[in-house]
Specification:
Layout (H helix, E strand, L loop, with lengths): L2 H10 L4 E6 L1 H7 L4 H6 L7 H11 L3 H20 L3 E8 L6 E8 L2 H13 L4 E2 L28 H19 L2 H5 L3 E2 H8 L7 H13 L3 E4 L17 E4 L16
Antiparallel strand pairs: 1-3, 2-3, 2-4, 5-7, 6-7
Helix pairs in contact: 7-10
Length: about 260
């Protein structure tokens, strides 16, 4: 399947789901500007300049090269397919040392979430080389490679790291003046806005919001304006706003800027 095929499917069908696999290790090992390789990656619409860029990245070696090339391919995939929602994680082969990049493309955030749930459910088979929060593939080319995070294995440790990162990063989105003026942000719109850039599921985002409420940072109300009963999760259309009376010693007050 080519990226042209993906664009056609996304245009013609109402709710398609497409799964693509890329042998990123193969790309790293056999990168070259020779015609045979360029012909092999033609379905990905990769040009010689992009291949040269990846060749330069490969010189960093090992895990760093894989992570950086993943970033390059990820941005390329976004630009070429125009996919509304996607997950981009690695399959860990139990029989070899090679990994395969699994890309799930859809036109609905809930379909994206269902795929993410599968990754968490099959923890021994998937790996993510990126951040645990809302910027999973965040990379600043002006910084050293020391910014590259530890592998994310969709296990209990990864869940703990995701929860901590979401607790820290979600308030910046909730406390934006335009969001408050509009009456708050729903769980659904919040998740839709970050789902392409986080390994977290709706459930993990929901639990982080409940955690922020427990710390007195936010309030959660139902669609009809009632306070959401104290529970471990909140609903898709629940409304989240800054708490009416927040502590002067709040860990997220004022909102930190990058």
């Amino acid at each position: 399947m080519t990226f042209r095929d993906v664009r056609a499917i996304l245009t013609q069908l109402a709710n398609p789901e497409i799964i693509l696999t890329f042998s990123v290790d193969w790309i790293i090992d056999y990168l070259t500007t020779e015609d045979e390789f360029l012909k092999a990656v033609l379905p990905l619409e990769l040009g010689v300049d992009q291949v040269r860029e990846m060749l330069t990245v490969r010189d960093n070696g090992g895990r760093e090269a894989r992570w950086l090339i993943q970033n390059l391919l990820y941005r390329h995939l976004q630009e070429r397919t125009g996919a509304p929602y996607y997950t981009c994680f690695f399959i860990r082969s139990p029989r070899s040392h090679r990994t395969y990049w699994l890309v799930h493309i859809s036109k609905h955030p809930r379909a994206r979430d269902e795929m993410a749930v599968r990754h968490w459910g099959l923890t021994n088979h998937f790996i993510h080389h990126g951040q645990p929060g809302t910027q999973m593939l965040g990379y600043d080319p002006g910084r050293s490679l020391g910014q590259i995070p530890m592998d994310f294995l969709f296990d209990d440790d990864a869940s703990t790291r995701s929860h901590a990162a979401l607790m820290e990063e979600l308030p910046e989105r909730i406390f934006r003046p335009e969001q408050i003026a509009a009456g708050g942000v729903t769980l659904g719109s919040l998740f839709t806005g970050i789902c392409n850039t986080t390994p977290a599921t709706i459930d993990l985002v929901s639990k982080a919001l409940v955690g922020l409420r427990a710390e007195g940072e936010v309030q959660i109300t139902t669609r009809d304006g009632r306070e959401r009963p104290r529970s471990a999760t909140c609903a898709w259309d629940d409304i989240i706003l800054p708490a009416r009376q927040r502590s002067l010693f709040s860990a997220v007050w004022p909102v930190r800027k990058e």
